[in-house]
C-alpha cells in the first residue's frame, strides 16, 4: 500500500471511494477523497479538529450526500443509496452521539436494528446469540430503557446494534469519545474481536495512540484532504504527525 | 360603479391592516398567529362597545388597540420559552375562546344578535353620500401610516434585534438582548394593529355579529401574506382584491376557501421565497437532529 | 350526580382519545402538530354519514369502511402536502396543515352544505347501571375506543412496525442508520392516525349533530389532551384525553356548557406555563 491510496497488494477491496467531496453549506468540507479499503482490515482516520473526519464517515454512512465522486461497496455503487439501503447492502454505522434509541429498551434497540431489513438479511436466532455473546454487558440488561444506560454501556449497545445487521463493513465515529479509560480499552478490544470475525472496520478517532495501536492502515485527513495513507509503523518511524497536522 | 369600487377597496384596506400585523408577527418574528379572527373580533367588539357607550371613535380605536395588544402579549408570554408550534396552538385556542365569549356573553355583546348602530369616525364632516369616500381616505391614511411606521421599525435597532433573535436566540442572548421581552413586544405590537383593523371593521359596517369573524378571515390574511411575501405588503393586498367576491352563497364561499387553502399549500411548497428563506431551513435535518431530552440529560 | 358527570366525562374523553393519539403519533414522527385534525374528524363523520344515509349501510359498517377509506386519504394528503415539506421546520408544516384544514372542511361544506345531519340509528332507551344512566352510543363508544386503544398498544409495543415507529420518533437519523425506511414508517403512521381520527368522527357524530364544524369544535380539547400527556407520547395522549374529558364535563357544573373549549384552553395555558412536557412526555420542547 503506497502513500496516495492506490492499491498495490492483491487483497480484495471491499470499500472504495474516488474523488468524494461533501459539505454542509456553501463550501466543501472534504474534497477529492480517494481511498480503497481491503477486506478484513481496520482503517483508522485521524486528523486535527475540523479536518472533516466526521463529515467523511457520514458520507460513507449515507447521512450526508456526496457532492462529487463515487463510493463502491464491493462491486456495487452506493453513492446514490439512502442510509437504510446501505445497511441492506452490508454497511453499518455507529454514530458518536445519540447512538441508541433512548425511549426503547435495550432488547428493543437490538430488535429494531434488524427487523426492517430484507428477510435474508434479518438476524437469525444464531446471529442474535452471537451478538449477545460478544456483548455480555448488553445481554444482561435487555429490559432496561436505553436512556438509563451509562455512556460506556450505550456505546456497547450501539456497537451491538450495528452488529445485529451482520455488516461486511462497520463504520465507527469516534468510538472512545467521552469514555472512561476502562471503557476505552474495552471498546477497542471489541473492535478487534469484531474484526477478527471478518468485519472490515473504518473508524475515525481522536485518540491517536489507540488509533495507531489497532489499525492496519491509517488515513490522515487535514483540512478536508488526504495528507497521508500509511501503516502505523510507517507513521511512527517515518513521519512527523505534528507537522502533518499543523505544518 | 364607484360605490362598488370604494366598497372593495375599503374591505381590502381592512384586510391590508391585518396583513401588516401578520407580517410583523409571522414574517418578522416567526410567530404564527392562528387566532387572527379572534383577535380581530376582540378589537371590533371593544371598539364597538366603547363607541356605542359614547367614548368617541378615536378613544374606542385606541382602546381596541390596547386590549388586543395586551391579549397578544399574554398569549406570547405563556409560550415564550417553547418551540414555535406551541404559540400556534395557543393562538388557535385563544381565538376559539374569544369566539365563544362573544357568542355567549350576551349582556355585553348581544351574542348572535350582534351590535347595531355603531358610530363612525368623522361622521357629519361631509354629506352622507360622500362619507364612504371619506372613510376610505381615512383608512388609506391609516394603512400608509402603519406601513411607513413598520418599515421604519424594520430598519431600527428593534427590528434588527428581532431578526437576530429569530435567526438564533442563543446568539442573540449572548449579545445581551432581552430575548423574551423582544418577542412579546413585537407580538403585542402586531396585536395592537389587529385591534385597529377590528375597530375600522366595526365602524365601516356599523353592525357586527359573531358570524363575521370566522376562520375565513384568518385564511385570507395568511394567504395575503404568503402570496405577497415579506416586505411587499402591497402585493399581498392586491392579490386579495383579485380573489374578493361579493357573492355569498355557501357553495361559492366554500370554493373560495378551498382555493385559498390550496393556494396556501402550493405557495408553501413551491414558493418558499418571500420571507420564508428568513427561516432556518432544516436542510440537514437527518444529520443535525436535536436530541431527545432523556439522552441529553445523562 | 358527580358519578354521572364523571362517567359522561370519561366517555367524551374516550372519543377525544382517538384523535389525540393520532395527533401525538404524527407529532412524534414528523415533529409538527397537525392542525387539520379537526377537519379530518369531520370528514370521517361525513364519509360514514354518506355510506349510512345514501347506501343504507348500518352505522358500524359505514364507520369501518369510511375509516379505512380515510386512512388511505390521509396517506394521500401526506404525500401531496407534507412530503414536499419534509425537510422544512415545523412552521411551514403547521401552516400547510391549516391549509389542509380549510380545504377539507370546505369540500365537506361544498358537498353537504352547512346544515346539521345525523346518522340513521336505531332508537334505544338508555340503560340504568348502578344508578347511572348509560345510553347505547356511550356503550358503543367505550367498546370501540377500548378495542382501538388495545390494538394500537399492541402494535406500538409488540410488533416490528410499532418498534420502528417509536425508533423513528425517538431519533430519525439513527433509525435510518439502522436500516429503517422512514417514508414507510410515515405512511403507516398516517394510516393509523387517519383511521383513528375518522373513527372518532363517527363517534362524535353519534353524540352531536354532524355539520362542517364538527371536528373544529373538538380541536382545542384534542390539543389539550395531547399536550397534557406529552406531545409524542401515545399512552400519555390517552390518559390526557380521559382527564380532559372528565375536567371539561365537571366544569359544566360551574360554567355554561358552551365554554368547554375554554376550559381546555386554560388547561393548555397552565400546562405550557408550568409543565410543558406534560405528564409523561420527554420530547424536546424548548427552542
Structure description:
The complex is a heterotrimer of chains A (247), B (298) and C (287). In chain A, 36% of the residues lie in helices and 23% in strands. Chain A is of the alpha/beta class and 247 residues long. Chain A has a single domain (13-246), classed as P-loop containing nucleotide triphosphate hydrolases (Rossmann fold, 3-Layer(aba) Sandwich), CATH 3.40.50.300. In chain A, strands 6-7-8-3-9-10 form a six-stranded mixed beta sheet, with helices on both faces. The longest helix of chain A is centred in the last third of the chain and has 16 residues, at 181-196. Chain B is mainly α and 298 residues long. The model of chain B is unreliable at 274-298 (pLDDT under 50). With 287 residues, chain C is mainly α. In chain C, 71% of the residues lie in helices and 2% in strands. A two-stranded antiparallel sheet of chain C has the order 1-2. In chain C, a hairpin with a 2-residue loop joins strand 1 (127-129) and strand 2 (132-134). The model of chain C is unreliable at 283-287 (pLDDT under 50). Chains in contact: A-B, A-C, B-C. The interface between A and B is small, with 14 and 9 residues.
Amino acid at each position: 500500500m503506497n502513500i496516495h491510496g492506490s492499491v498495490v497488494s492483491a487483497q480484495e477491496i471491499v470499500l472504495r471511494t474516488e474523488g468524494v467531496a461533501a459539505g454542509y453549506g456553501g463550501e466543501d468540507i472534504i474534497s477529492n477523497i480517494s481511498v480503497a479499503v481491503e477486506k478484513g482490515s481496520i482503517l483508522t482516520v485521524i486528523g486535527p479538529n475540523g479536518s472533516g473526519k466526521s463529515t467523511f464517515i457520514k458520507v460513507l454512512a449515507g447521512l450526508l450526500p456526496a457532492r462529487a465522486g463515487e463510493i463502491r461497496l464491493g462491486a456495487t455503487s452506493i453513492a446514490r443509496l439512502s442510509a437504510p439501503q446501505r445497511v441492506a447492502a452490508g454497511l453499518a454505522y455507529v454514530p458518536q452521539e445519540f447512538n441508541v434509541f433512548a425511549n426503547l429498551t435495550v432488547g428493543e434497540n437490538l430488535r429494531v436494528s434488524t427487523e426492517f431489513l430484507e428477510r435474508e438479511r434479518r438476524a437469525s436466532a444464531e446471529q442474535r446469540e452471537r451478538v449477545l455473546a460478544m456483548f455480555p454487558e448488553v445481554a444482561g440488561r435487555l429490559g432496561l430503557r436505553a436512556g438509563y444506560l451509562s455512556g460506556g454501556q450505550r456505546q456497547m449497545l450501539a456497537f451491538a446494534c450495528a452488529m445485529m445487521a451482520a455488516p461486511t463493513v462497520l463504520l465507527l465515529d469516534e468510538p472512545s469519545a467521552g469514555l472512561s479509560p476502562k471503557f476505552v480499552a474495552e471498546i477497542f478490544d471489541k473492535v478487534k474481536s469484531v474484526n477478527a470475525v471478518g468485519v472490515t472496520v473504518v473508524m475515525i478517532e481522536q485518540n491517536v495512540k489507540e488509533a495507531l495501536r489497532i489499525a492496519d492502515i491509517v488515513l490522515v485527513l487535514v483540512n478536508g484532504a488526504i495528507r497521508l495513507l500509511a501503516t502505523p509503523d510507517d507513521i511512527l518511524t517515518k513521519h512527523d504527525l505534528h507537522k502533518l497536522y499543523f505544518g | 360603479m364607484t360605490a362598488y369600487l370604494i366598497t372593495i377597496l375599503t374591505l381590502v384596506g381592512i384586510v391590508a391592516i391585518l396583513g401588516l400585523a401578520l407580517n410583523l408577527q409571522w414574517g418578522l418574528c416567526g410567530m404564527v398567529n392562528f387566532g387572527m379572527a379572534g383577535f380581530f373580533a376582540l378589537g371590533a367588539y371593544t371598539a364597538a362597545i366603547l363607541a356605542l357607550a359614547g367614548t368617541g371613535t378615536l378613544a374606542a380605536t385606541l382602546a381596541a388597540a390596547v386590549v388586543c395588544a395586551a391579549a397578544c402579549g399574554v398569549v406570547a408570554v405563556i409560550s415564550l420559552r417553547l418551540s414555535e408550534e406551541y404559540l400556534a396552538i395557543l393562538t388557535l385556542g385563544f381565538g376559539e375562546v374569544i369566539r365563544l365569549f362573544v357568542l355567549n356573553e350576551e349582556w355585553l355583546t348581544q351574542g348572535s344578535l350582534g351590535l347595531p348602530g355603531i358610530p363612525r369616525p368623522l361622521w357629519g364632516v361631509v354629506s352622507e353620500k360622500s362619507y364612504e369616500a371619506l372613510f376610505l381616505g381615512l383608512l388609506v391614511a391609516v394603512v400608509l401610516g402603519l406601513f411607513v411606521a413598520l418599515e421604519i421599525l424594520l430598519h431600527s435597532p428593534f427590528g434588527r434585534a428581532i431578526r437576530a433573535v429569530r435567526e438564533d436566540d442563543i446568539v442573540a442572548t449572548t449579545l445581551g438582548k432581552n430575548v423574551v421581552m423582544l418577542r412579546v413586544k413585537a407580538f403585542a405590537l402586531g396585536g395592537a394593529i389587529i385591534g385597529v383593523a377590528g375597530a375600522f371593521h366595526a365602524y365601516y359596517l356599523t353592525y357586527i355579529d359573531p358570524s363575521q369573524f370566522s376562520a375565513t378571515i384568518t385564511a385570507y390574511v395568511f394567504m395575503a401574506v404568503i402570496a405577497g411575501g415579506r416586505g411587499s405588503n402591497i402585493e399581498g393586498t392586491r392579490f386579495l382584491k383579485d380573489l374578493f367576491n361579493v357573492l355569498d352563497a355557501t357553495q361559492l364561499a366554500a370554493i373560495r376557501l378551498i382555493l385559498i387553502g390550496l393556494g396556501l399549500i402550493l405557495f408553501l411548497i413551491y414558493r418558499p421565497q418571500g420571507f420564508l428563506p428568513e427561516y432556518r431551513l432544516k436542510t440537514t435535518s437527518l444529520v443535525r437532529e436535536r436530541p431527545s431530552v432523556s439522552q441529553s440529560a445523562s | 350526580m358527580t358519578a354521572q358527570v364523571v362517567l359522561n366525562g370519561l366517555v367524551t374523553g374516550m372519543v377525544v382519545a382517538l384523535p389525540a393519539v393520532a395527533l401525538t403519533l404524527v407529532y412524534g414522527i414528523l415533529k409538527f402538530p397537525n392542525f387539520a385534525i379537526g377537519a379530518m374528524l369531520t370528514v370521517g363523520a361525513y364519509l360514514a354519514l354518506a355510506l349510512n344515509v345514501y347506501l343504507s349501510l348500518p352505522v358500524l359498517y359505514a364507520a369501518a369502511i369510511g375509516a379505512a377509506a380515510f386512512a388511505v386519504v390521509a396517506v394521500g394528503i401526506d404525500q401531496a402536502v407534507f412530503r414536499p415539506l419534509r425537510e422544512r421546520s415545523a412552521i411551514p408544516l403547521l401552516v400547510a396543515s391549516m391549509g389542509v384544514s380549510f380545504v377539507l372542511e370546505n369540500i365537506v361544506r361544498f358537498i353537504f352544505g352547512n346544515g346539521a345531519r345525523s346518522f340513521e340509528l336505531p332508537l334505544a332507551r338508555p340503560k340504568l347501571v348502578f344508578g347511572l344512566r348509560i345510553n347505547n352510543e356511550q356503550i358503543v363508544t367505550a367498546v370501540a375506543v377500548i378495542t382501538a386503544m388495545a390494538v394500537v398498544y399492541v402494535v406500538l409495543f409488540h410488533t416490528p412496525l410499532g418498534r420502528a415507529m417509536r425508533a423513528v420518533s425517538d431519533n430519525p437519523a439513527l433509525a435510518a442508520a439502522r436500516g429503517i425506511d422512514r417514508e414507510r414508517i410515515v405512511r403507516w403512521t398516517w394510516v393509523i392516525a387517519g383511521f383513528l381520527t375518522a373513527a372518532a368522527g363517527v363517534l362524535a357524530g353519534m353524540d352531536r349533530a354532524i355539520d362542517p364544524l364538527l371536528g373544529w369544535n373538538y380541536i382545542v380539547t384534542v390539543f389539550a389532551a395531547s399536550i397534557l400527556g406529552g406531545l409524542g407520547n401515545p399512552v400519555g395522549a390517552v390518559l390526557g384525553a380521559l382527564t380532559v374529558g372528565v375536567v371539561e364535563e365537571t366544569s359544566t357544573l360551574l360554567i355554561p356548557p358552551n365554554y368547554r373549549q375554554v376550559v381546555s384552553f386554560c388547561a393548555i395555558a397552565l400546562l405550557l406555563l408550568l409543565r410543558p412536557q406534560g405528564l409523561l412526555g420527554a420530547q424536546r420542547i424548548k427552542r
